[in-house]
Amino acid sequence: MKGKIAIVGDGDSITVFKAAGVATFPAETEAKAREVLRKIAREYKIIFLTEELARPLTEFLKRFDEEVYPVVLSIPSRSGSTGYGAEVLKSAMERALGVDILFNN
Amino acid sequence: MARLNVNPTRMELKKLKARLNTAVRGHKLLKDKSDEMIRRFSVIIKESKRLRDEVEKELSEVLRQFSVARSVTPAYKAETAFAMPSVAISADCGAASIMGVEVPELSLQADRKTALLPYAYPEITSEADYSVECAVRLLPKMLQLAQTEKTVRLLADEIERNKRRVNALEYVMIPQLEETIKYIKSKLDENERAAVVRLMKVKSNG
């Protein structure tokens, strides 16, 4: 099965991926990102989302975890990593195992 | 623990015993499944952590480099150069199964000619070329991370659900059945004793 790749984020962080051939959807605010995601979730199988936008949308993103596709991945934006990715991992680990085996804090 | 609301008959006793048997067997199976899922999960989550660290580091590097590269190119030229990429990449999306949990399997489709940059403007500096190339090279890794992280989340959900099932069996279903079976047994014994006593009385009177 063939799946398309998209990236959602603020203009500067996503341009380089546009040049690399990924479909880009600029979104500066949380509300805009939500709208864009809703629109493209069926068409695109893999969606990269910058951490700044993923953080306020955590609840909204949960609905994508009920199905295998689309796969939504948070990536650091131009201003660097905010640690959101690690937080998501940590919460999944705590839910499943009840203990922290990676970060130890 | 509350006992089930059933009539204390031999029929019910037989049925309940069968149910208890099934419940115990099911509990054992689910517990084994849970153990194995947790084992796999801890492997995958370590992998995921490693990948994420790598991707975050490299991606920040690429983005930083690109913004430098862009700053030396006039904005409108950069916009036009990057606005119409001549390639569109896509990924192979499959599905795998880990302990009955369906998980995604992604790989970049390889029909792309990596030697060609997706734009053809002489205005673009070699720095920009380089960072786009880096981004392209990073994509397979990002896909792998996407796949691993999704797997982690799906597996975590399944482990949670499974745990709830195991607990429901262990702490509700099985004790309930055991208690009810005990109750029916004692009731039947009681009836039997009553019958014996009644018979003895009848005999001694007659």
What proportion of the residues of chain A form beta strands (DSSP E)? 15-25%
Q: Please tell me the CATH architecture of chain B by its name.
A: Orthogonal Bundle
Q: Write down the oligomeric state.
A: heterodimer
Instruction: Tell me roughly what share of residues is in helical segments of chain B.
Output: over 70%
Low-confidence stretches of chain B: none
Mean pLDDT of chain A: 79
Q: Helical segment tally of chain B?
A: 3
Shape of chain B: rod-shaped
Number of domain modules of chain B = 1
Number of domains of chain A: 1
Trace the largest sheet of chain A across and list its strands. 2-1-3-4
Distance, first to last CA of chain B: 46 Å
What characteristics describe this protein?
heterodimer; A: 105 residues; alpha/beta; Rossmann fold; four-stranded parallel beta sheet; 4 strands; globular; B: 206 residues; mainly alpha; Helix Hairpins; 3 helices; 2 strands
What features would you describe in this structure?
The complex is a heterodimer of chains A (105) and B (206). Chain A contains five helices and four strands. By secondary structure, chain A is α/β, with parallel strands linked by helices. Chain A has one domain: 3-Layer(aba) Sandwich (Rossmann fold), CATH 3.40.50. Chain A has a four-stranded parallel beta sheet, with helices on both faces. In chain A, strand 1 (2-9), helix 1 and strand 2 (23-26) form a beta-alpha-beta unit. Chain A starts with a strand and ends in an 8-residue tail after the last helix. Chain B has 206 residues and is mainly alpha-helical. Chain B has one domain: Orthogonal Bundle (Helix Hairpins). In chain B, 74% of the residues lie in helices and 8% in strands. The model of chain B has no long low-confidence stretch (mean pLDDT 83).
Layout of helices and strands:
The complex is a heterodimer of chains A (105) and B (206).
Chain A: E1 2-9, H1 11-19, E2 23-26, H2 30-40, E3 44-50, H3 51-54, H4 58-61, E4 71-75, H5 84-97
Parallel strand pairs in A: 1-2, 1-3, 3-4
Chain B: H1 10-72, H2 75-83, E1 90-98, E2 101-108, H3 126-205
Antiparallel strand pairs in B: 1-2
Helix pairs in contact in B: 1-3
